[in-house]
């Protein structure tokens, strides 16, 4: 599977997680945009591998959160 962290889908996911504190499910994130399952799989793998987001839990219980960079907004 292609690992994609610099795609529009990855940017959309990262923007959502950065704008919304806490952990969110895949369903929470997908409900706010038009990302397909295929786009999700490639984007989320790239974001996790790149250390930009972290995941907790497994399968349907997985929650995602943006990794803090320590920078003030």
Task: Give an overview of the whole structure.
With 73 residues, the protein is α+β, with helices and mostly antiparallel strands. It has a single domain, classed as Arc Repressor Mutant, subunit A, CATH 1.10.10.10. It has three helices and two strands. Helix 1 crosses helix 3 (37-49). The N and C termini lie far apart (34 Å). The model has no long low-confidence stretch (mean pLDDT 86).
Order of SSEs? HHHEE
Placed side by side, the strands forming the largest sheet appear as: 1-2
Number of helices: 3
| CATH architectural label | Orthogonal Bundle
How do the helices and strands line up, and which of them pair or pack?
Elements (H helix, E strand, L loop, with lengths): L7 H12 L6 H5 L6 H13 L3 E4 L6 E4 L7
Structure keywords:
two-stranded antiparallel sheet, alpha+beta, single chain, 2 strands
In short:
The chain is an alpha+beta fold. It has a single domain (8-66), classed as Arc Repressor Mutant, subunit A (Orthogonal Bundle).
């Amino acid at each position: 599977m292609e690992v994609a962290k610099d795609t529009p889908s990855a940017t959309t996911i990262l923007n959502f997680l950065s704008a919304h504190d806490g952990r969110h499910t895949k369903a929470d994130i997908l409900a706010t945009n038009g990302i397909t399952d295929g786009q999700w799989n490639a984007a989320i793998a790239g974001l996790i591998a790149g250390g930009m987001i972290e995941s907790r839990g497994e399968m349907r219980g997985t929650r995602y959160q943006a990794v803090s960079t320590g920078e003030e907004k």
